[in-house]
Amino acid sequence: MTGTKLVYQVDETLRSYSTRVASAQLLSTLALEDRALFKSSAEDDVVVITKETIFYAQGGGQPFDTGSMTSMSANFQVSAVRNSVVSPGAVLHLGRYLEGAFTQGDAVEQKVDTKRRDDNSRLHTGGHVVALAVRKHLLNGAVDDVSHKDLVELGASHYPDSAYVNFQGTIEAAHKDAIQTQVDAFVDAALPVKVYFWSEEELRARCAAVPDAVAIQDRDGGLTRAVDIEGAGAYPCGGTHVKDTSLVGKVKVRKISRSKGCSRVSYTVEHP
Predict the structure, then answer these.
(1) How far apart are alpha carbons 137 and 144 in whole angstroms?
(2) Is the pTM higher than 0.85?
């Protein structure tokens, strides 16, 4: 296997892209650790690795992209995408041929499902908006309460049926309406969403928080990707986003729940 260049991390607007096949093989021939990444699959499913990809591989709380890859003689439908465990850096595109088959070196045109990508991007940006609204309300002076000073982001889920941001620390339900007001203000302001690549020093200096779960990447010159909602704050992030907060749609803070010293702020996004 070989590494895959993540083109979408540099240009999130791409919905089609030309690249070449690095390998194509039956899922059943992969190492057990990589086969285990695909829970729902069939014996005749194929895994394709390309030199570059615009397909998002599931991770960081965001679902994978789906779509297609076509060559002069083959049509391949992509049903799931994962990052290889056995060969770190390789992106595995799972799917089936509708016609023909790929061979190593074939030129292919990748196309991602635009609606799915856009929906996932809105949800991901919406999660950042919610986290930054919590931070502004409880940590940046809006509430003078020492009990909130130790709040730390633990991670998030940006799935349509289960979207939330987790914090270490206690957030009382009484803050829900104020957090919603700040979320609305961020969305209404149409704040630009920008991607940067920062050193670890820059990351820790410029980001609102760097959760312990975030691995500082030792690639591309030691730089780590960060997503900055200008005027609100930045986080290290490898996911896809919309260009400004107004494009997220209506973000609703659904509830705040607490368990074992942690708080979960759940949210939904109604698309514009």
Answers:
(1) 10
(2) yes
